[in-house]
Specification:
alpha+beta; 384 residues; Rossmann fold; globular; 11 helices
């Protein structure tokens, strides 16, 4: 059998697997809604009690919720009832807006004395709440309702059971983790293509730090996120990213100049440059197998492919193997992922590339930097 035939077979297997995953995700979403709407029956009733035999802690809980998530109204009733049954003070409830995705609401909660702030929503809401809590020592809880739920996934939090996630937020242990910050120094103009200095940019383009908790990326991965159909994502979840990615497999490789810490700048051609705080993604994919949430380092992965679909197939195999703890260091690979780490990273892309932080698009940029903020955030995680 020729290699083209093997590629066709692999593509068919991937397509069938995707259809199976869509079905599984649909069933899980239906079960999630049933649990939210019927919290006093079955397992929901057990979670709703939230260990009544344990003395109430008296902690003041604040919730910062994304109202665009369709399950939020029913969930609000359930979580407030759960707090009341545990004998907690009346919780604070804030909702995000387009103008403020959660940072201001979180800071208001801290000012009002919240002992824990719980983010209800997707990765964007989690990033905003985390930004409001960095350096305060107030722990963040998570009730994940998004597509990727990246931080929750890396913290081994319940992903499809909101009441179990609430129990962790109220009764879990506190863990201190790092956060990453990405700053854009030069934007690519969308009008006439010349590079725009940050100092000359419009007010909404002035340099600012964008927090990321999992992975920031430049190149293929960011273009894939930017091109994802939102309606499809609402129907099938993270599979929509896979569909978008297929459209970018034949995109151009990018030349980037990279400086790690105080080392000399180097140049290379690649598909994506990933800068991560941790490395688990949906679908059982681990892009950064050595990344730890609390080690004070950023893990960097340079991803490259040549040879068309064959290169991408080899890259996919590399990712799957490293997730299982197997490294392939054979030379002259047409699909590869190379790892290193640093505390500060500087990147220059002369042609401009899309950049994303935890699945949120920052824009097209030509120069950026990233740094790690060690032990800056406290999160609630399951008790060991």
């Amino acid at each position: 059998m020729t290699w083209e035939a093997w590629v066709a077979v692999c593509a068919a297997v991937v397509a069938l697997s995707s259809l199976l995953l869509v079905g599984i995700l649909w069933l899980r979403q239906r079960e999630l809604r049933r649990r939210i709407e019927s919290p006093r029956s079955g397992r929901g009733a057990r979670e709703l009690r939230l260990a009544r035999d344990v003395e109430a802690t008296g902690q003041l809980v604040a919730f910062v919720a994304n109202p665009s998530k369709q399950d939020v109204p029913a969930l609000r009733t359930s979580v407030l009832a759960a707090c009341a049954e545990q004998g907690l003070p009346e919780p604070l409830w804030f909702e995000t807006t387009i103008a403020d995705p959660g940072v201001g609401q979180t800071r208001a909660a801290v000012e009002r004395g919240a002992d824990v702030v719980v983010a209800i929503g997707g990765d964007g809401t989690v990033r905003a709440v985390a930004e409001g809590l960095v350096g305060t020592g107030v722990p963040m809880g998570l009730i994940p309702l998004g597509t990727g739920n990246l931080l929750a996934r890396n913290l081994d939090l319940p992903l499809s059971d909101p009441m179990a996630a609430l129990r962790t937020a109220l009764e879990g242990r506190d863990r201190t983790i790092d956060v990453g910050w990405l700053r854009v120094h030069r934007w690519q103009s969308e009008i006439d293509d010349p590079v725009v200095d940050a100092a000359e940019a419009l007010p909404d383009e002035l340099p600012r730090d964008h927090i990321f908790l999992v992975i920031a990326g430049l190149g293929f991965d960011a273009a894939m996120v930017a091109d994802t159909d939102e309606q499809l994502k609402a129907r099938v979840g993270w599979i929509a990213y896979f569909v978008s990615g297929m459209r970018h497999l034949h995109g151009r490789r990018t030349r980037v100049h990279v400086r790690l810490d105080d080392q000399p700048m180097t140049s290379t051609r690649l598909r994506s440059l990933l800068i991560g705080n941790c490395g688990k993604l949906p679908g059982g994919i681990t892009l950064l197998p050595d990344a730890l949430l609390d080690d004070g380092w950023l893990d960097i992965a340079a991803i490259d492919t040549r040879g068309g679909i064959a290169g991408w197939a080899q890259l996919f195999g590399e990712v799957m193997l490293q997730g299982a703890g197997v490294r392939n260091d054979l030379p002259a690979k047409i699909g590869r992922i190379d790892h290193t780490r640093a505390q500060e990273v500087r990147v220059v892309v002369q042609g401009g590339e899309h950049v994303q932080v935890d699945g949120d698009i920052v824009g097209r940029v030509t120069e950026l930097s990233a740094r790690v903020d060690h032990a800056a955030l406290v999160v609630r995680v399951p008790v060991l």
